[in-house]
Write a structure and sequence with these properties.
The protein is α+β, with helices and mostly antiparallel strands. The chain is built from 6 helices and 10 strands. It has helices at about 5-20, 25-30, 75-95, 95-100, 140-155, 320-335, and strands spanning about 55, 130, 185-190, 195-200, 205-210, 225-230, 235-240, 270-275, 280-290, 295-305. Strands 1, 2, 3, 4, 5, 6, 7, 8, 9 and 10 form a 10-stranded antiparallel beta sheet that branches. The longest helix is centred in the N-terminal third of the chain and has 20 residues, at about 75-95. The protein is globular.
Length: about 350
């Protein structure tokens, strides 16, 4: 007797196998909406899964789950409603830019057309990008939250308290893969022994060897760390170590509570890239830093193919005058208020 494999059966098999590879607690529900069971993985000339192309991650889904939301996923109807509300909100914002400017709100960015932060929730229907712990919240230690608050309260006193993004340095790893207000596209290029990821925001380029060679000397620490990659089936696994302690885990306003949380030299990041359809590449990252968090935690989200997107250079001011201008402006405020900044 022959067993007939229906499209539904094939879909279940594909989802089950994919979840086993991704390995996150809610992986089944997460990818069910985006996996294509009839799609065949393209290959590079040397037989690797072909992840090449331009991929975007702009979205209105928050990184951490809102306190009022207890569920991990939205229904299809809720997704449609939120997307419609976003469209209506942007239309209203664009219809009256002058009034917002005159009221002193969003000066220089009063219309949605100045930004490109997304207008839909994630296609997976997740209520947060954080999928582990189950509550969708990063397990941040109190000292790290206090350090973030101190920097925010004193960012006008010294450049060291300012965002590493504002200082045009780097968004780090995994921060460079998190959505922001604009420039949310990444170009992936593969060779037989390397994978390169070009980040539109701050124009970082990660050149990642497909190698089991030892990591660099432990005395060498870097903004983006030192990475090694390997294939587990059709999943690209990237492990990154050797960070210094001058970065932030997230530097964009879109990072919410995570913006400004410091990194330490113990940071260890493992990313997994798995293409599940012609237009979807799942990105999952597990973050471990025992100095900053009480336990490892995981972000997972779909990246969407953007073949017609034109990537532009992200150029900070010549000499980054924005930093010196901001600090000099704060000195005027200090003189007016009679306060004295830290040395």
């Amino acid at each position: 007797m022959q067993t007939r494999i229906t499209p539904r059966t094939l879909r279940v098999v594909v989802i089950t196998l994919t979840c086993a590879l991704i390995g996150t607690p809610s992986a089944t529900a997460q990818i069910e909406r985006v996996v294509d069971p009839t799609w065949t993985m393209p290959r590079t000339p040397d037989g690797q899964p072909d992840l090449q192309g331009k991929w975007g991650n702009k979205t209105i889904t928050p990184i951490e789950r809102p306190a009022r939301e207890e569920r991990a996923f939205l229904t299809d109807e809720e997704m449609a409603t939120l997307n419609q509300r976003r469209a209506e909100s942007q239309a209203a914002q664009d219809a009256a830019p002058a009034q917002q400017y005159e009221a002193g709100r969003n000066v220089g960015g009063y219309g949605s057309y100045w930004l490109d932060s997304g207008d839909t929730v994630l296609s997976t229907g997740q209520t947060s990008m954080v999928v582990d712990p189950p509550d969708g919240r990063a397990p941040i230690k109190q000292w790290a939250l206090d350090a973030k608050a101190y920097n925010l309260a004193n960012e006008g006193d010294h450049y060291a308290h300012m965002s590493v993004w504002d200082r045009c340095l780097s968004r780090g790893v995994p921060g460079s893969m998190l959505p922001a207000g604009y420039n949310n596209v990444y170009r992936i290029v593969q060779t037989p022994d390397h994978v390169a990821i070009q980040h539109e925001m701050i124009h970082d380029v990660r050149i990642i060897p497909l190698s089991d060679a030892p990591f660099i000397d432990d005395r060498i620490r870097q903004w983006m760390g030192d990475a090694r990659a390997h294939w587990e089936g059709d999943v690209l696994v990237v492990e990154t170590r050797h960070f210094h302690n001058r970065g932030w885990i997230a530097s964009s306003f879109a990072g919410g509570r995570l913006k400004g949380i410091p990194t330490s030299t113990a940071l260890h990041v493992v990313e997994r890239y798995q293409r599940v359809s012609e237009t979807t590449l799942m990105w999952t990252v597990t973050i471990e830093d025992p100095n900053v968090y009480t336990a490892p935690w995981t972000i997972s989200m779909p990246l969407t193919a953007e073949p017609n997107y034109e990537m532009f250079e992200y150029a900070c001011h010549e000499g980054n005058y924005a930093v010196s201008n901001a600090l000099s402006g704060q000195r005027v405020v200090d003189a007016r208020d009679g306060s004295t900044p830290e040395p």
